């Protein structure tokens, strides 16, 4: 890849004396700097979580998560296992297909095959802010074959014949996390057939014309989680902002405020060049933001209102950040409902669904268990990482209800069919309902609590 003329960390471009004087005159106070840094950290948090995945998948050729670059699907024709660390809180009911698109030069065309009526699939399209801006699949567009177009914020062309719908993104770079339901190991080949029927091509290829000039090559700054959680978050933020232009009308004033502490599209950031009092104020703002995130996380116990489009989220950046922290790339509520638990595997517990109160799903439901604090699947001898309505051998209660067991030790041979193994310590368990009913979406139906099993 070509090297960018700007470096995010370690290099500083000299500013003209007049510009420097103007900046100095307009510089915010330390208190203002602290407040702006807090706001910017919260705003950018989901973007940096997204960049962590993007860097692995398109910015690190040769890495195990590399998908092949922009415009390439990478399909996983098996469920996730504890060895896969592409993303936190992975869903292992539906094998994933990943792809990233660079929309700077031209739109891309997405083609999907006809999918059997009983098989659920969804292409969730996500922008750099982590807004879900488009859906293709069983719920949104049906299981029939179709051709769609993904266009960036600057595209002004005409829609060619054969395109069912154009989806517009606010950002130049987007990704899809595509899920295809897997109905057991014997179903792998059928899933592969669906995945291989999904195609991506630039618009010029679709209309059989010469491609436009290529966009400049991107030099990806290596992702360092320690930097992303410090004042150096600004370097990553500035890098990503160059792909989000022009700013959304509702954020023009916000971006001007951010610019007063050195946040701007493509601008280099070097903490060592800042006055000590400015850097100290930014550090305090980062700490304030992290404390705000921690407090918000404590009271965020449901996915309702957590994921969606910009219109759904209403520019609630703190909620957007918590969504990325708790479950990056979560579906919008109309597509999937999420809830869950935090428990301790040292104590065997039950989840009891009364008769008629099973999760109300149009497609299917599951509960997947993750280790804490890393939020990956828990390795166990049963190789059972989730449990739900498609789990073979699941036994109903005598009255038609359903009791599940969660814990480190087996509940006994007669109950192992309903056992979700857990580590000998803290865990989280995420419930997912695909195609949730109105009762799930409005809170009328509620997930039952974890209940300790009394010791004998």
From TrEMBL:
Pfam families: DUF1214, DUF1254. Residues 344-437 form the DUF1214 domain. Residues 1-26 form the signal peptide. The keyword Signal applies. Gene3D superfamilies: Domain of unknown function DUF1214, C-terminal domain, Domain of unknown function DUF1254. Residues 71-202 form the DUF1254 domain. Keywords: Signal. It comes from the Bacteria. This is DUF1254 domain-containing protein. It comes from Variovorax dokdonensis.
């Amino acid at each position: 890849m070509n090297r960018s003329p700007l470096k995010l960390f370690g290099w500083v471009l000299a500013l003209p004396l007049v510009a420097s004087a103007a900046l100095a005159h307009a510089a915010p106070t330390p208190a203002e700097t602290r407040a702006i840094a807090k706001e910017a950290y919260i705003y950018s948090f989901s973007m940096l979580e997204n960049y962590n995945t993007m860097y692995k998948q398109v910015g690190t050729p040769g890495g195990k998560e590399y998908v092949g670059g922009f415009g390439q699907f990478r399909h996983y024709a098996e469920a996730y296992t504890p060895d896969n660390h592409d993303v936190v809180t992975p869903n292992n009911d539906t094998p994933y297909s990943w792809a990233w698109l660079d929309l700077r030069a031209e739109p891309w065309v997405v083609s999907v095959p006809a999918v059997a009526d009983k098989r659920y699939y969804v292409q969730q399209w996500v922008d750099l802010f982590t807004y879900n801006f488009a859906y293709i699949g069983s719920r949104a567009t049906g299981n029939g074959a179709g051709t769609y177009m993904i266009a960036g914020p600057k595209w002004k062309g005409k829609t060619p014949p054969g395109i069912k719908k154009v989806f517009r993104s606010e950002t130049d770079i987007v990704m899809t996390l595509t899920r295809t339901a897997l109905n057991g190991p014997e179903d792998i080949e059928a899933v592969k057939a669906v995945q291989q029927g999904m195609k991506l091509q630039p618009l010029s290829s679709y209309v059989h014309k010469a491609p436009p000039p290529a966009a400049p090559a991107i030099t990806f700054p290596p992702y360092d989680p320690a930097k992303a959680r410090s004042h150096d978050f600004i370097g990553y933020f500035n890098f990503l902002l160059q792909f989000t232009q022009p700013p959304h009308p509702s954020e023009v004033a916000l971006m001007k405020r951010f610019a007063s502490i050195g946040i701007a599209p493509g601008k280099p950031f070097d903490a060592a060049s800042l006055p000590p009092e400015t850097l100290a104020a930014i550090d305090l703002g980062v700490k304030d933001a992290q404390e705000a995130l921690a407090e918000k996380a404590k009271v965020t116990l449901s996915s309702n209102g957590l994921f969606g489009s910009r219109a759904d989220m209403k520019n609630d950046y703190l909620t957007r950040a918590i969504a990325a922290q708790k479950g990056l790339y979560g579906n919008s509520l109309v597509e999937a409902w999420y809830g869950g638990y935090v428990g301790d595997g040292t104590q065997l517990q039950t989840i009891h669904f009364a008769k008629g109160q099973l999760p109300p799903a149009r497609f299917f439901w599951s509960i997947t268990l993750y280790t804490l604090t890393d939020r990956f699947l828990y390795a166990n001898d049963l190789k059972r990482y989730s449990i739900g309505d498609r789990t073979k051998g699941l036994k109903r209660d005598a009255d038609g209800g359903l009791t599940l067991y969660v814990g480190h030790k087996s509940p006994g041979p007669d109950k192992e069919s309903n056992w979700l193994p857990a580590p000998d310590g803290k865990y989280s368990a995420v419930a997912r309902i695909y195609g949730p009913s109105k009762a799930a979406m409005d809170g009328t139906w509620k997930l039952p609590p974890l209940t300790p099993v009394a010791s004998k």
